[in-house]
Amino acid sequence: MFKTILNIIPRTWLIKISFWVKPIIAWYLKGNKYTDPIDGRSFRKFLPYGYGKQRNNALSPSTLSLERHRLMWLFLKDETDFFTSKKTLNVLHIAPEQCFLNIFRKQKNLSYITSDLESPIADVKADICNLPFKENEFDVIFCNHVLEHIPDDKKAMQELYRVLKKGGFGIFQIPQDLSRATTLEDNSITDKKERAKIFGQYDHVRVYGRDYFDRLRNVGFKVEEIDYTKKIAPEKLERFCLMKGEILPVCFK
Asked: What range defines the domain where residue 217 resides?
C-alpha cells in the first residue's frame, strides 16, 4: 500500500508533504541502513529525488533533507561554533529550507531572520538584489540553490557581501558542474523545455562551472572551496547518503 503511495507522489511535491503523510512514510521506511544526521533517525532507505533524472536515496523521509543539507549540517556542527556560540549570532537565511527552519528558529544563540521574494514561510519578503538590511548586519548568511535562479547574480552577491559583518561567514551552495571551467549562460534561451535540458531546470538561468568561486571573490569575499566529504569516513558518507566530492563554498568577509 505505502509503496503504491510513494510511487504516485510527484517528486516535486515531496517538500510540500502534509504533516500527516510525512510521518506515515517515515514509519514505513524505518530501518537501520541510512541515518539522517540532522535528527538522528534511521531508515532502511531514503526517497529518490531529482529534477528529471532521479537520485536514489537522496531525500530523508523525516526532515526532507537532501545530500547538500546533510553535508552543510555536519560542517556547521563539527567545524564551526554555529550551534555552540556563547554570543548571539545574527543569521540571515535566504530561501530557508524546511529541514533547517524550525531547528534554527528554536536555537537560543541565534537571532534568526529568513527572507525570500515569494516564499510564504519567510519572515521578510525581499529581492536578493535589493535587501532591506543594513551594512555589516549579519554574522552568518545562508543562501543555498538560489543564485542559479537570479539573472543578475553579481548584484545578488554584492548584496550578500554588503550585509555580512566583517569576520562573518556565509555558505552559498549552488548546483555546479565541476567539469566545466566557466559558467554557461545564454539569455536567448527562453523555452522552458530547452532551459531544463541545458541548465538542468526550467527556472535556472545558468550552469555554474569552477569559476563560481572567483565570481564570489570578485565582489570581495574570501572563499574556501571545501570538499568536506574528504573529512568524513567512507562508511558515514554511505550511511548519511552524502554526495562524495560535493564542494561547500564557504565565504568570509
From this structure: 68-252
